[in-house]
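Q: I'm teaching a short session on how sequence maps to structure, and I want students to see two examples side by side rather than one. Could you give me a first protein with its sequence written out and its structure tokens following it? Keep the formatting plain so it prints cleanly on a handout.
A: Of course. Example one:
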Amino acid sequence: MAFQPRYPILTPQRFTIISSKRYCPTQTLGTTALQARTHLAAFHTTPVRAMKGARVTSWGAPPEYMTVPDLPAPLPNQLQLKVLAVGVPRAVRGRAECKHPSAFGAPLPFDPSADGVGVDEATGDRYFINTLAAPLFAERANVDRSQLVKLNAAADPVTVAALANPTASSWMALRCRATGGCQGRTVVIVGATSASGRAGIAVARALGAARTVGVARDPDTLAKVEGLDDRVLLPAHPDEPLVLPPSIGPVHIVLDWVGGPAAVQLLQSAQTEPGENLQYIQVGGLAGHDTLVIPSRLINIKPICIMASGVGSLSGEDLKREMPGLVNTITTMRRPFEVFAAPMADVQSVWNSEEAQSKRLVLIP
């Protein structure tokens, strides 16, 4: 194999080097060349820092903790942050299994992380790192400054990392997809006992919903969910219809993390307000149904608007615009579900643990 120089080589006439001093490719030799040689020598004598991280090496298996390539110096438009906390929501687990669209075609080893919290060690400033802005299952990350939201001093990194993804799904749905927002309206949360559903209740309240209705299957768990005005049980058997009681009144927005036949039954039984659309927003598929079969008569006799909120239906500009408000809301929220914080070094053993399945896992490098 031919020798490949790691750094630019000086020629008899001119040289090229990239550094913080921004040497120009057309500078001639002389004193500057000596400076460049000194600069290169410093590079060669500086020890390379090893960095630890977690990577998926086989689709569907837990990530492995390993030594990963160290980062280059950040670009002028980037900050290099020490990673403090990274959440593991369903989307990250889906990416680790190559079942999430954002992971399709990705090579192994693969970092399935989505978002998290980091600190600029030079200033002490802490930041929320936007979704897919950088690989975060590592000790450090280079992140574009435009993808960072500065946190206030009181913000807890673990809480922000745990709540960011489940809170974002409802925030983006209500802020970017629902026409007119939810101020003064009734919002029905289907899948209210899930992490995203619980966060959705808090978000709807924060955005001014007049009434929140939770729909879920387990009566004992649903009874413990905070922030609800009404609770409705999903039928125990598929043949039983889901019926919203008339006492709930007109429904304006439905956020559905479950999907399937129950969604159609809900739309059939929901009251509507004259002059207002019943806005159904699909944000998840916990029931595992790939299709939603809507009778044509139903959308003929009711003013129903059907949409989704997620990858493809939201733009990068939507995320950039909404993240500061979302993060600010998260920092003032109570945790609507339990959180399990674990060292990233233990990722293989905790990934599928009972505690990680019943609580929101957050990894700490």
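Q: Perfect. Now a second example for contrast.
A: Example two:
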Amino acid sequence: MQENPKISEEIKKIEYEPLLPIEKKLITWSIITGLGLIIILYIINRLIIK
């Protein structure tokens, strides 16, 4: 009977793969979009609720 592999052991076996340039761009744009929307919503909130 085989034991179930532990997650930590499986993670250690995975090789490191650097992010592709397009992945870095997607992450950057997602963060910028999220922060931009937070700022816009904050400004709208301050204008509506005085």
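Q: What should students look for in example two?
A: Point them to this: Residues 21-48 form the longest helix (28 residues). Also worth mentioning: The helical segments are 7-13, 21-48.
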